[in-house]
Automatic annotation (TrEMBL):
One of its GO terms (molecular function) is phosphoribosylglycinamide formyltransferase activity. This is Phosphoribosylglycinamide formyltransferase. Keywords: Purine biosynthesis, Transferase. Its EC number is 2.1.2.2. Belongs to the GART family. It comes from Acaulospora morrowiae. GO terms for cellular component: cytoplasm. Pathway: Purine metabolism; IMP biosynthesis via de novo pathway; N(2)-formyl-N(1)-(5-phospho-D-ribosyl)glycinamide from N(1)-(5-phospho-D-ribosyl)glycinamide (10-formyl THF route): step 1/1. It comes from the Eukaryota. It catalyses: N(1)-(5-phospho-beta-D-ribosyl)glycinamide + (6R)-10-formyltetrahydrofolate = N(2)-formyl-N(1)-(5-phospho-beta-D-ribosyl)glycinamide + (6S)-5,6,7,8-tetrahydrofolate + H(+).
Amino acid sequence: MSRRIIVLISGNGTNLQAIIDAVQSGTLDCKIELVVSNKESAYGLTRAAQANISTLVFPLKPYKDAGKPRVEYDVDLAKKIMSYNPELIILAGWMHILSKDFLEYFNGNIINLHPALPGKFDGAHAIERAYEAFKRNEITNTGVMVHKVIPEVDKGQPLLIEEVPIFESDTLDDLEKRIHSVEHRLIVRGILKFFEDLNQ
Ligand SMILES: Nc1nc2c(c(=O)[nH]1)N[C@@H](CN(C=O)c1ccc(C(=O)N[C@@H](CCC(=O)O)C(=O)O)cc1)CN2
Ligand SMILES: NCC(=O)N[C@@H]1O[C@H](COP(=O)([O-])[O-])[C@@H](O)[C@H]1O
């Protein structure tokens, strides 16, 4: 029976595309029940539509404009997602910090793809920050991880970690390309590992 997954995005959706490709090739025995974006402009929504996957655009701005707290947005989003009865929620470039109120709906069955090593560059803009740190001779490499999602941002237990080298000749674009190619592989392996661990 295919596993029911939901993918949350905020932008281009190249990692979503990697998941779609893996499902279509049979690498992942999953059904993407829904793709959610908090940004209407996210190209990942186009990628989902082209793959005949249901989409939901759910921006935070109307809540902010109405003076409603973020937690109300999070709870309303959780209830919408719950209605699809997912077995796993994947944050693939989802750029919104989720409250514990959201997380509590899903019993820990949420994973996130983060372009850094554990405890190194938690939060947004991790690739740029790693590149700058390398230029300051503070680090010699960086990496990518897929981790469980907990309230503390990017502090959840890693499922998979892969180091990524940085070279003196690298531009930021070189490093971003190298990291993205690792991400596209790791996100698929991370989903496989999540369900393998579930079966143990
Ligand atoms: N409770 C958790 N929520 C999220 C996690 C997590 O581990 N725990 N991972 C992030 C993904 N992420 C890094 O991997 C990340 C994304 C965004 C931000 C951030 O600062 N977001 C700002 C808004 C930024 C923007 O809109 O450009 C915010 O939410 O106010 C930090 C880390 C996803 N959520
Ligand atoms: N903290 C999470 C984070 O920073 N994720 C970053 O957002 C990009 C999304 O790309 P995509 O929309 O093409 O998948 C990913 O490449 C990743 O580096």
